Amino acid sequence: MIDVKQAIKIAHDYLLSLYNPDELIDLLLEEVERSEDDRYWYITFGFTRVLAVPTKAPQSAVSVAAAIQGTTTDLKDNVERVYKKITVRADTGKVQAMKIRRE
Question: Which positions of the chain have pLDDT values less than 50?
Answer without folding.
Answer: none
